[in-house]
UniProtKB/TrEMBL annotation, chains A, B:
<keyword id="KW-0479">Metal-binding</keyword>
<protein>
    <recommendedName>
        <fullName>Gamma-butyrobetaine dioxygenase</fullName>
    </recommendedName>
</protein>
<dbReference type="InterPro" id="IPR003819">
    <property type="entry name" value="TauD/TfdA-like"/>
</dbReference>
<dbReference type="GO" id="GO:0045329">
    <property type="term" value="P:carnitine biosynthetic process"/>
</dbReference>
<dbReference type="InterPro" id="IPR038492">
    <property type="entry name" value="GBBH-like_N_sf"/>
</dbReference>
<dbReference type="InterPro" id="IPR050411">
    <property type="entry name" value="AlphaKG_dependent_hydroxylases"/>
</dbReference>
<dbReference type="InterPro" id="IPR010376">
    <property type="entry name" value="GBBH-like_N"/>
</dbReference>
<dbReference type="Pfam" id="PF02668">
    <property type="entry name" value="TauD"/>
</dbReference>
<comment type="similarity">
    <text>Belongs to the gamma-BBH/TMLD family.</text>
</comment>
<feature type="domain" description="TauD/TfdA-like">
    <location>
        <begin position="156"/>
        <end position="405"/>
    </location>
</feature>
<dbReference type="GO" id="GO:0005739">
    <property type="term" value="C:mitochondrion"/>
</dbReference>
<keyword id="KW-0408">Iron</keyword>
<dbReference type="GO" id="GO:0016706">
    <property type="term" value="F:2-oxoglutarate-dependent dioxygenase activity"/>
</dbReference>
<dbReference type="GO" id="GO:0046872">
    <property type="term" value="F:metal ion binding"/>
</dbReference>
<keyword id="KW-0560">Oxidoreductase</keyword>
<keyword id="KW-0124">Carnitine biosynthesis</keyword>
<feature type="domain" description="Gamma-butyrobetaine hydroxylase-like N-terminal">
    <location>
        <begin position="39"/>
        <end position="124"/>
    </location>
</feature>
Amino acid sequence: MAMATLRFIGRKIVLGKQGPGLAAASTLRRALATTVGSVDKQKRLLTVRWSDKSRRDSLLPLAWLRDNCQCSACFHPDTLSRLQLMENFDPKIGADSVQFDDASKTCSVTWSDGHVSTYKYDWLMRRSFDSESQQQRSLWYSGKHELWGSDYAIRRHPFDQLMKSDSSLLQFLNDMEAFGLTVVEGAPIAGTEGLRAVTDLCNRVAFPMETNYGTTFTVKSKLNPSNLAYTPARLGLHVDLPFYKDPPGIQLLHCLAQSNNITGGENFFSDGFHAANLLKVANSDAYKMLTTRLVDFYDYETDHLADFHMLCRQRVISLTSDGEYEMICYNNQVRDTYLNMPADQVQLFYDALKAFDTLLHGEQCSVSTKLKEGDIVTFDNRRVLHGRNSYTVHGTAERHLEGAYLRWDEVYSRIRRLEESVRSRQP
Amino acid sequence: MAMATLRFIGRKIVLGKQGPGLAAASTLRRALATTVGSVDKQKRLLTVRWSDKSRRDSLLPLAWLRDNCQCSACFHPDTLSRLQLMENFDPKIGADSVQFDDASKTCSVTWSDGHVSTYKYDWLMRRSFDSESQQQRSLWYSGKHELWGSDYAIRRHPFDQLMKSDSSLLQFLNDMEAFGLTVVEGAPIAGTEGLRAVTDLCNRVAFPMETNYGTTFTVKSKLNPSNLAYTPARLGLHVDLPFYKDPPGIQLLHCLAQSNNITGGENFFSDGFHAANLLKVANSDAYKMLTTRLVDFYDYETDHLADFHMLCRQRVISLTSDGEYEMICYNNQVRDTYLNMPADQVQLFYDALKAFDTLLHGEQCSVSTKLKEGDIVTFDNRRVLHGRNSYTVHGTAERHLEGAYLRWDEVYSRIRRLEESVRSRQP
């Protein structure tokens, strides 16, 4: 087993071809006032003991260090992208020496081909491979959900405030991330300003996601409707566009016209992850069915863009490989008449779907609200299901919503940049 | 065990509360000239023996039949959506009688609540639950891939032809589906017509997918580039935008300016699914690593839309739950400096990545072409990786590409509608 010879020359380790093993623990303890390291040539790991005693040792793989050289030949400073090509990268490259400089807080590695890579201490610390550092990093990723039931008081945010204040915008987006259901209130309703308010809000966050229903869509009772939402029918709890492999992340519905002359039309919402949790406890067979079986969703229509025939097979409850909730994909309206499973599974499938639907609509889960003019209800279309009571119009009143979608990728990107600018969080 | 009493009254089955079991096989044989059925009340299945002897028996679950009643109260004829609410649906509803009419080729079920559902024979046959019917249906879904190596002669399609002929457009899209790499040639290059040609082609298929780089993007050597593609550097084989959870499906790059005064800048391509197959045979450990480990991709920049900080964890080789290839997600430029795995896995990870990259670039896989002005190279960004040689400009020449993306969901939708209109394929 080839191990590094560790000879401390100042704070430089010169690595011999063979050696007796890692520096003894006592050697490392004596050197605590300065940052020191040792290389295990067999495992190809550099262990760093930081002079800052509050920091744990960092285990840094040599291949990773070479891959992430930050010099301008290896890493492009403007685009923050790796210039070094994998074609030219030797994952087994050796390190000839490692040097620590506590004054400049940098670590330099001289590689066997003569290339020198220099890393800042804090840059390395944040990228350490211990589980604590990695958990810290994972916080930048999505998934800070707070599940809710029927006692959830829908968070409300003033439109004007969001449009001008970055910290208000961030608070709104944090609420969307956590609860997946908010109302933005006081949006303009008159004229072109009213018509474009939902787009303005999208553009304040990122930009609207175009779909087969357009960049925005008008929810009214229409002649020759292309979608059941464009009729006055009751809509059960559903997500929009489940026939997309990657359905829209956030849906925004801006109420431009509502009236006392309209009976019904209340919206109701349900946290699909919460209902899935309830299902898991109450009916594990149903939960298993809905987390594994693929269900066909479809949309065969013509809207202003073109004729379309969308098809997608989705799990009603999608889990990540870690078993976390990823997405709810359920829409009874556009669930296909084709059902791709063996006949002997079908009854169990319907029993499972009925059980889930009953929980979603039940008193433990569902919250209801009737939108007021100027309200923009915004919800996580991959988690929070929405429904609508049927409505009747008396006289000339009209119910009119303008809708749009955002993708979570771009919303999370916006959150990260706002966390950085508003809260000085280090990216 | 409660089984149906089968009494053939004409071609009507009246189902009693209790009974001796299914009609004997001999009864069914005698009735072959007409369509007959039997209901298993325990399994809640209707078995139909069609008068058309070339058709196998259909097994039709009762719950599915009730769910898919096509009457105008249950199913909206304009939107082709289910009006029946799951809230009002009883998955255990009983069938009082089933009637077959070979003259009108319809089957009617009278349910225990008095509701009557009528289905056309061919509608039922196409939705049967036998594996043959279900395989037939699955052909409407994606995945008709023909993998290729370095001997692939890139399919070429004339721009004008695609823009005016639906059958040419369909042939182009079928090639994209099968091979994931084509060149559309002879696109306009002059003036605004040239600048918008890639958008025109997108709109002919569906519409461009907007991303953090815009609805379209200009690939030139730029000052203060936001992406390595906007420099003259060599780019190894990669997919675009792997920091999206759902990266763009098809990429289109329209060459507007190329010149003899530009040395280099050739493009090269590699079928990632083919390379993955080679890897699986040559190095199963590497294959396992790349199909399971999540890798961080990121993009931290400012483009014309906004500041962004995109992050996504992806498998380099994604498989479906059936073990089919779903997506290749590899881009060495924007692979993050953060690597979310235990230190002792890192060397194996780099060895695996190097092995895959070597296959991708190797002589078994890679094809090369230098784009000519008017070429629009189009490729499946989730399967076919693209790269570019570094280039040097002599004098005032400029290399200029206009790029755009399409989503596969909308492309497949377009293919389905074209299959229907051009080839009369039944949807």
